[in-house]
Amino acid sequence: MSHNNYQDFVNIDEFKYAAEKKLPRMVYDYYASGSFDQITLAENQNYFSRIKLLPRCLIDVSNVDMRTNVLGIDLSFPLMIAPTAMQKMAHPVGETATWSAANELGTSMTLSSLSTTSIEELSKHANGNPGWFQLYVFKDRAITKNLVQRAEQIGYKAIVLTVDTPYLGRREADYRNGFRLPHGLKLQNFSDLPLADVEGGLNAYVATMIDSSLTWKDLDWLKSITKLPIIVKGVMSPRDAEIAVTHGVDAIIVSNHGARQLDTAPSTIEVLPYIVKAVNGRCPVILDGGVRRGTDILKALACGAKAVMIGRPVLWGLAVGGKDGVKRVLSLLHDELKLSMALAGVKSISQINKSLIWDPSEYTKL
Ligand SMILES: Cc1cc2nc3c(=O)[nH]c(=O)nc-3n(C[C@H](O)[C@H](O)[C@H](O)COP(=O)(O)O)c2cc1C
Ligand SMILES: CCCCC(=O)C(=O)O
């Protein structure tokens, strides 16, 4: 067996470069791209780097406890795996490898509706503890209902309703490459239905199958067909956060879909504090988009997030080393967060708050 040097990688970027070398161009571009000019894609990371962390000193940080809990799920540290479609393009084991890595690191994943491993197969692999299920609402409500009820019956713990995809954002590389699901792979939740193939590309698929007429009323419909907690994913406006809470959602994921939908939307970390303020403790707020460092996780928590999710870094880990690659990605972020908390002077998640973020206006009157 050839030597896999990814165990020596020291950061997430190295995984990205290695994945780019290894994956077919069409697959890498699909995973990596943002929409249009990719302004938001850059901003998701850049805004994190503009936020400054203010360390406190002479605090006993010989023990740092990163454990937390989100909607009843225990996490060894406040990071979860975001739903990403079609993981078998990255590695033949796909979604089950991702689940195993998450499980071994004490965290949890959300399975995409558009997965290359079925709801049932993942749950079987996960001994009935598969995590959360991400829902796209199909125009055909019988199909949608079927997905939700299968997920509920077989042990998923929440429905993550994605609300930012009435149509697919335009990712230009996918047009150039004629992106499609490679031969031999299927969207396994739809087994033999025509729905299982993405022959004509993803944009056409979404335009034909996904319900672009979805409104808040449909959230009430979703609540009527399942007892599972409902998490809305893709909220960016504080106004929408307010509406979501009014509709009784169990959590909100602040997300711009990894900058793959509306380009020039703000970064997620920029809007997070305003959403946290609007929600005012009425439900947990999770953030995803551009998290690549332990310090990013610390900043998101300092701005009021309960946890963060990562999308692409997991795909890079999967591409480079399957389950072990994903484990290495997760443990890098785990160790970075632990060190960053210690250096900032916090020893538990509950001690993280906005005083960690440098804001000179707080000190001008001192
Ligand atoms: C290749 C890819 C596929 C994705 N597929 C889905 C999906 O099926 N459902 C969904 O709700 N979000 C999907 N997302 C969005 C992610 O859940 C998440 O919001 C985003 O990747 C977070 O940003 P990050 O990649 O910078 O960590 C996808 C993102 C990527 C990059
Ligand atoms: C219906 C969307 C397909 C997967 C996805 O979410 C993405 O490519 O960003």
Structure explained in plain terms:
The protein is α/β, with parallel strands linked by helices and about 375 residues long. The protein has a single domain (about 15-345), classed as TIM Barrel, CATH 3.20.20. About 40% of the residues lie in helices and about 10% in strands. It has helices at about 10-20, 25-30, 40-50, 95-105, 120-125, 140-155, 170-175, 200-210, 215-225, 240-245, 270-280, 295-300, 310-345, and strands at about 70, 75, 80, 110, 130-135, 160, 230-235, 250-255, 285-290, 305-310. Strands 3-10-9-8-7-6-5-4 form an eight-stranded parallel sheet. A two-stranded antiparallel ribbon has the order 1-2. The model has no long low-confidence stretch (mean pLDDT about 95). 2-Ketohexanoic acid (7N5) binds near residues 85 and 202. 2-Ketohexanoic acid binds near residues 114, 136, 165, 202 and 206. InterPro entries: Aldolase_TIM, Alpha-hydoxy_acid_DH_FMN, FMN-dep_DH, FMN_HAD, FMN_hydac_DH_AS. Belongs to the FMN-dependent alpha-hydroxy acid dehydrogenase family. It comes from Heterostelium pallidum (strain ATCC 26659 / Pp 5 / PN500). Its cofactor is FMN. One of its GO terms (molecular function) is FMN binding.
